[in-house]
Amino acid sequence: MAQKKVDVLIIGSGHTGGMAAKILTEKGIACTMLDAGPMLNFEKNRELKPAHELPFRGFDAPGRLPHVFQASEFNANIWLDEKVAPYSYPPGQTYNWVRVRSVGGRSPFWGRQSFRHSDYEFKSKDHDGFGENWPISLKDLAPYYSRVEEIFRVTGHTDHLPQYPDGNFIEDNSPWSGAMQRFVDAGKKLGVPVTKPRSALGKDGLAASINLVIPDAVATGKLTTIPNAIVRKITVDKKTGLADGAIFIDRHSHREMEMKARVVVVAAGTLETTRLLMLSEICNSSGALGHYLTDQIYGAGIICSVPEARDGKAAHGLMGGGALIPRFRNLDTKTNGFLRGYAVNVSCSNGPFDARALPFYGKELDQKLQSYNGSGFSTDIMGETLGHYENHVSLNKQVVDAWGMPTLNISTKYTTNETNMTKDYIDTMAAMAEAAGFDILVKNYEFNPPGFSIHEQGTARMSDDPKKGVVNKWNQSHDMKNLFITDASVFVSSGWQNPTITMCALAMRASEYLAEEMRKGNV
Amino acid sequence: MKRRDFVKGLAVATATAGTALGQQYPASQAQNPPPAADAAGQGAKATPPPPAATESRRNARMEAMSRFRSPDIPVSQPDAVAMTAPRYFTAARYATLVQLCEIMMPAGDDYPSTAKTGTAEFLDFYIGSSPVEQQTMYNNGLDRLNADSMKQFKVSFAKADEKQADAVIRPHLKGWMNNHPPREGQARFINLAQRDIRMATMNSPAWSIAAEAVGDRTPGVGLYWHPIDPGIQRWVTPGHGHAAPATNHQHS
């Protein structure tokens, strides 16, 4: 078959690649979307099974996924095997790079928490002097947030908090459970807002690119989707200096293919995107490519028991529900010891109690589990980490993946900013739990290694200044006007928020801008 | 299902499948020799295309096979008929582990002991196949349990009574959460071993049978993802080379 030049090549089919495909094809632009992994077949690939039928009784195969704390024997096959696609980090600087490689990327498996960034994030440097502001504000992105929230069917409560911008919600007006109300009241006394969670309901049990946005692109008849296509290089027209296509490798046969494109949209997921730009030796006139890697700390928390709920004595409506505490530190006042802030996921459970939290064994543990059943109350942190220049990735040509491509060395570490933030968080949550009358059983000040949150951001950040960033405020490369990056590699700072909704809003905005530029003949 | 029934079912199903295939295809075709395994050899022989009638039979067979659906043959897990022989831990450590399993998860009225769920045998296999850090934690932890018991009571942990075992376990129990078990060596071992023992026991086939017998829900049911798409084996070398020109190649 003769090689043909496609209008837009989209590399990656996750939330932002899918969004780009939807917007561009609906504007009449033909797109070809490549994904490095296979197409998922939900009927064939998964089924309900009891653990005793699995080879390792629910433990995963020994040593199989050492950096994926989220892995179990049930889901082990969805994560990318690091023996196939290795990466490295300096001694003592563990990084948990958690990847999925199938059409839809990580989008079928995300946590669905759906938040807007506020201008405390977009204009963070104005507030505390660290890092850089984004070249956009909430006002620029608000209309796109609304459309994305409609697609994802985001449920939430309107709270009128500037650090927790309201959105286009399916309004959640459900009442608090009794225990949760006590925690809300305890928060009020300490100036800590406890709000309803915000979450994507999605459609038919899924909130992924493959069911929310890609089908719209397919319906236009203008999308060509090619799985198992591992892009090893974005090619450049030597005459114009613009991107003109890509070379990819078939995952199974290792056959190398070349394709030509008028425009390239890179949406491979933060670090894969940056790796591809590095492999292609493009988009780094600023020197910022690969730098300012950031994410969020997870893992620290407290576990409590609500005394009145023990021994099956919980009154109707006492237990149940979740809450979200949006950032409340360093807004109008300064907190000693750390910059930025954290949010908190709160869970009030009327289900089984976590055995790990109870320091007993044998029949005594069983009795305690029976007694504590339905009385659990716990919190988890989502804390912003700082994107220092030193937190960076580089190519490791000594270690190649299964397709012979150099891998990434990820060099990042947390500082006292994160440890001080976590101490403040645990102490504040413990004070609230005590004030609410809960028994605190566990206080864990330790957070998980960088990468665990699966919210890696930065390394190809946006900036109005071509000397400081890789893309401009439209996600357009400063170096190649026909190359756009739509994933979270363009983030300037991480905020505390789950990044998905912001990624999608940026991808939608960038794609509409691109379509208009193509129509005008500027790209 | 009882083993006798299972064997009977298997024999019937096998015979049925064989008979069905025998009915579909003429005996002469079933006896055809297999094609040459060597592709180069096939090329050298320049075998002519098969006659149309043969090709038609081949296509009919292929279409029939494509319509074939999996037979319903009940299967059992190996634990129903066999045990794993311990072979990783030393005899002393294994005896300590067996005792630790029984103490951490004693038999209940309706649920089996860890001896019946094969917990220690499973952990011997699992830890024996695990990264060295985990093996070291278990080996050191089991040794320490034994040493503490000997020091305090002059009796091995494997032979300690409940009170003696409690004295060497309880000081190390801590509440923990998420991915953060205690860091201190013996506390880390005791708390992680307890987690492993509970999981290996409650996710065993014997435990599941006990749960069903008393009308409890089958424990540990989850959404299992099969391998999504095998095929990452490398059959070619990346960046394949160029054919070398023949030494006697001549240009016209």
CATH architecture call of chain A:
3-Layer(bba) Sandwich
Query: What structural class do helix, strand and pairing data of chain B support?
Result: mainly alpha
Total number of helical segments of chain B? 11
Poorly predicted runs of chain A are none
Number of E-type strands of chain A:
19
Radius of gyration of chain B: 30 Å
Share in helix of chain A: 10-25%
User: Largest beta sheet of chain A, briefly?
Assistant: 7 strands, mixed
Kindly describe this structure.
The complex is a heterodimer of chains A (523) and B (252). Chain A has one domain (5-41, 79-520): FAD/NAD(P)-binding domain (3-Layer(bba) Sandwich). With 523 residues, chain A is α/β, with parallel strands linked by helices. Chain A is 24% helix and 20% strand. The model of chain A has no long low-confidence stretch (mean pLDDT 97). In chain A, strands 1, 2, 7, 8, 9, 10 and 19 form a 7-stranded mixed sheet that branches. In chain A, strands 11, 12, 13, 14, 15 and 18 form a 6-stranded antiparallel sheet that branches. By secondary structure, chain B is mainly alpha-helical. Chain B is built from 11 helices and 1 strand. In chain B, helix 7 crosses helix 10 (185-202). The radius of gyration of chain B is 30 Å and the shape is elongated. Classes of the chains: A alpha/beta (523), B mainly alpha (252). Strand 3 (46-50) of chain A pairs antiparallel with strand 1 (221-225) of chain B.
